[in-house]
Structures are given as structure tokens and as C-alpha cells.
Amino acid sequence: MLVTDGALYRIIQDTWTSTLGFQVERHAPTEFSALEAFTVCVRISGAWDGEVRLHCSPPLARRIAAAIFQVEENKVGSSEILDALSELIHIIGGNLKSFLPQPVTLSLPSLLGSTTWGQTTPPWQMVCRLTLQSEGHPFVVSLFGRLSHCRKRETPSD
Known about the structure:
The structure is a single chain. By secondary structure, the protein is an alpha+beta fold. It is 30% helix and 28% strand. The chain contains three helices and seven strands. Strands 1, 2, 3, 4, 5, 6 and 7 form a seven-stranded antiparallel β-sheet that branches. Helix 1 (5-20) packs across helix 3 (78-96) and helix 2 packs across helix 3 (78-96).
């Protein structure tokens, strides 16, 4: 497994900057209520199996959608928010592919509901979890992978 916290962080920074024009900073760990946040994911399958998830609060999700669709925040609806978050997670997943054994494919992005957002498929483990901040709001990006593909790092690396 070649994805490190540092590599994932750089992918997110590049995605946020190029797609949204927003800066990203590391943030203290934050827990979200599943009822008050949006979670989208994209599955990765093939030579490496896993999933990458984006979890953010409604205010940040609204800002993201407004930036992508170039409209005022108060004009953004739920469908625009889900489309914008789905686009971001798909870009992140696409960039992750270059760090993974090939061949791999991405699923279409999907929304995780409040009953499933904290769950993982049993043979998966968390590879990376980054708690970040953008536009004054925290968000979390997590990467999960099949246990047979993952190994514990003895020292954190960027």
C-alpha cells in the first residue's frame, strides 16, 4: 500500500485548490453527527479493493456546491450539494488510483446514509483518516482498504 497520510493530504489540497479555489489545513480530530452531515464515497476495485469517503458539515457542503456551480450559497439545493460532493470524491479517488496496484476502477460516487456512514465492510481497515479544515469548517476524508492489502506503518510518513 503506497498511500500515506501525506500523499492523501496533497491530493486533497490540490483538488480543493484547483476545483474550488479553497485552501485546506489540518485540523484537530472532529466527530460529526451523521444526521447533520453529508458523506459521499467512491469504491475502488481490482488489484486493490477499498473505499474513499468525504464527510462534511452542511455549511461547508453548501460552500463547495456554490463554488462548483458558481452561484450564491443561498441558491444551492440538496441536489447541487450531492453533485458537488460526488464530483470532489470522484476526483480524489481518481488521483488515488496512481498510488495503487493496477488495474483498479472507481465506482460511481454514492451517498452514505445516517445508518451506514460509520460502518465499514468487515474485511476492511482504515488506511488513512484526515481531519481537515476549509473555509472555517472541518471535514474528514477516510480511506479504507481490504486487510490483505494493508500493512501497518511503524512510523508515520508523509
